[in-house]
């Protein structure tokens, strides 16, 4: 079974504060041109997307250097519950102390906040990952950190410590997952980005069960 973990990209959809707005309109029409072709304007970090290291690391890899092998593989789903603006740490990710010393290369963190993606009041007040916990994930072999929030860091701040840790290690971040809560604890996933050269790209995120 294939599970679609991506938000729909649509005109006027929510974006990270300050990012380009999403505009989808008519480019060609059947009435005028004989074909329907939409015109799309959006940022590289629209909807469910992957951050390349160059997003926050000067001289870091761009999407042109990110292979699909890095974005497809075995994953573990870590489930946390945190309130508005709260920070969750290692004890929240591993409350029973049962996580192995070496983790799968991909970790999905499910907070349930994807249900609030369209909520203008609460979307920006999502929980954030403690940088120390992010470092522990990297130390345990995680290459792709995927979250169901706008960012693993607090939105609206001037610092991006989790980005600095993960992207600074030449790893990758996927943001704005949808539906991770319904997945089993272990699952195979794939993040398939648009083949653009830049600091990030929208992805079609899927899980296979």
TrEMBL record:
Q: Which InterPro entries match?
A: KFase/CYL, KFase_sf
Q: Which domain of life is it from?
A: Bacteria
Pfam families for this protein: Cyclase
Q: Does the keyword Hydrolase apply?
A: yes
Keyword match Hydrolase: yes
Q: Which GO terms describe its molecular function?
A: hydrolase activity
Keywords, A to Z, come to:
Hydrolase
Quote the EC number.
3.5.-.-
What protein am I looking at? Cyclase family protein
Tell me what organism the protein belongs to: Microbacterium invictum
């Amino acid at each position: 079974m294939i599970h679609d973990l991506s938000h729909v990209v649509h005109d006027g959809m929510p974006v990270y504060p300050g990012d380009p707005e999403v505009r989808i309109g008519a480019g060609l029409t059947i009435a005028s041109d004989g074909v329907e072709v939409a015109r799309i304007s959006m940022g590289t970090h629209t909807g469910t997307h992957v951050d390349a290291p160059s997003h926050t690391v000067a001289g870091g890899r761009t999407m042109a250097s990110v292979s699909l092998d890095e974005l497809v593989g075995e994953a573990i789903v870590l489930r946390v519950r945190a309130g508005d603006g709260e920070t969750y740490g290692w004890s929240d990710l591993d409350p029973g102390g049962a996580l192995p010393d070496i983790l799968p290369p991909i970790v999905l963190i499910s907070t349930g906040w994807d249900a609030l993606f369209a909520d203008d009041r609460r979307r920006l007040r999502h929980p954030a990952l403690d940088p120390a916990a992010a470092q522990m994930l990297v130390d345990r072999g995680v290459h792709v950190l995927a979250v169901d929030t706008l960012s693993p860091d607090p939105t609206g701040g001037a610092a991006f410590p989790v980005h600095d840790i993960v992207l600074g290690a030449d790893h990758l971040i996927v943001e704005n997952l949808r539906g991770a809560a319904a997945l089993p604890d272990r699952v195979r996933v794939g993040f398939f980005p648009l083949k653009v050269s830049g600091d990030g790209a929208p992805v079609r995120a899927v899980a296979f069960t």
